[in-house]
Predict the structure.
Amino acid sequence: MAESALKHSEGRIRRLPPDAVNRIAAGEVVERPAAAAKELIENALDASARTIRVRIEGGGLVRLMVEDDGYGMSVDELPLAIERHATSKLTADDDGHVDLLDIRTMGFRGEALPSIGSVSRLSILSRAKGSDSAFEITVDAGRIHGPKPGPWSGLTSNGTRVDVRDLFYATPARLKFMKSERSESQAIADTVRRLALTRADVSFHLETDERAIIKLQAEQGTPAEARLKRLGAVLGREFRENAVEIEAEREGVRVSGFAGLPTFNRGTSQHQYLFVNGRPVKDKLLVGVLRAAFQDFLARDRHPMAVLFVDLDPMQVDVNVHPAKTEVRFRDAANMRGLMIGALRHALAAAGHRASTTVAGATLGAATSHIAPSLQWGSQSAKWSPARPVVSDTDDGTAYPAMSENRASTFDAFAASPSARVEPAPDDAPVGTPPLGVARAQVHETYIIAQTADGMVIVDQHAAHERLVYERMKTQMVGEGVKRQALLIPEIVELSEEEALRVLDRAAELEQMGLEVEPFGRGAVAVRATPALFGPMDVKGLIRDLADDFAEYEAGLALKERMEEVMGNMACRGSVRAGRRLTADEMNALLRQMEATPHSGQCNHGRPTYVELKLSDIEKLFGRR
């Protein structure tokens, strides 16, 4: 083994054959059928296509065909299209210099087509705009044939059809690493959906030999309206109904898009999308941004849904850091992160007490799934008697149990019950019903029943008041600042030199949150003060968590989350407890405070503080709809 390695190390440096170069590039750019589909669809978008059709067989390994109605390629351009590093998307200046940062297209490397052609049977049929003829060129595992005239039956009079058959047949070892046909098909579908999110003005179709998987028509309306329609078509109607619009701009950077309400969340982060200058990317920045923006609304194991679009000067972002162009690097990542978090928090605050519409649906589902075929009166003080006579005075002869002779005692049981109280309508009821209605009852001394203009609201009094107290504490902290508690003996925390520098670089930011740190030799940090509301705490553990957060998210999330956890516990202890009887005035005051307080629609863990049922929802429960 060592002798073999030595022989290779002592060998001459020589150029690899072109087919080997292309196969190496294919390993980086086209690692699976979904990657090939991404490259071909991006080429179609760069060609100003308005309709893109994708057809796959065998998970894209047997066949992958992408057809568009873009401006097409001439007979002279076809051979260049399959030549490495030949592209129409980069131009050189008079001195022959090409600026690799000034990228304004989806693709630009000129590697996709030759890479795909080196490991498959590739056919390209294209008709240039204004041309009377179509031409075709084929590549079989790197061997080129054509171009030659070909029959045209495209979407319009011009466009391109790229047909990839037997992907990776020239590299059979790669086929062993492919997943099942179903998994590869799902990966292609996910790629098409991600690209469809970027262009609401383009129609996307994906079909197999059995059925159509995706069928998205170009959306109409203003850009924001069209984008929201497309998001609803891809992510579901519920996302469209429960999303808040994101819009912010600073120093030439614009952030737009939509994010789901905190009560509309998921168990994974798969439904989080980031697009930079129209390019879908996977960046840890997005994970940190969403976690920071939603950190006091969701439990750790829940994740928000969001689709964010960042538009900025191409010179401020490097899209050339990954062969497949799935990662980017921002010149000013801190500014980007601050802008995105600010935009998200502003949008969530503007949503006020709003909770997602899925809360009502989940409530109806839970209610209907527990309704028994026949209901029995359970109270010992008021119940239907089996011995009661049966009357049948209806036209169809249907028999119903008769009411007790002492009807008043049946309803007096409710009035005497300590777990349900009915409040009379106030004489000075306001004109027009408020959004959360007017309190009508309190059930089990825990839930407030309010009547709205077109339905009813059920409020968890403890969770709602806990959120109100928590938001008030946050406001006071912003106004008065975080109170600090000086340590009698500074806590020395030993870290690696790199970790210590990351923490010390953010010393000013940490000081605003009540944590004072300073250097203590190489690879160590001295902590001189901590937030007073923390009380006794594991200082070393917190500093180490902060060092990890700064490395991964560019933010000290551990400190903020710890602070919000403490405030949440304090708010819980200081809020109206379940089991406390409230007067009508107290219940209505709680409802009015909820309407005036941001984020009051959910508790600190993302659970709803109230459930709203429309009359139509109630009618469904009783079979009226």
User: Anything to note?
Assistant: The domain at 352-368+408-625 is CATH 3.30.1540.20 (formyl-coa transferase, domain 3).
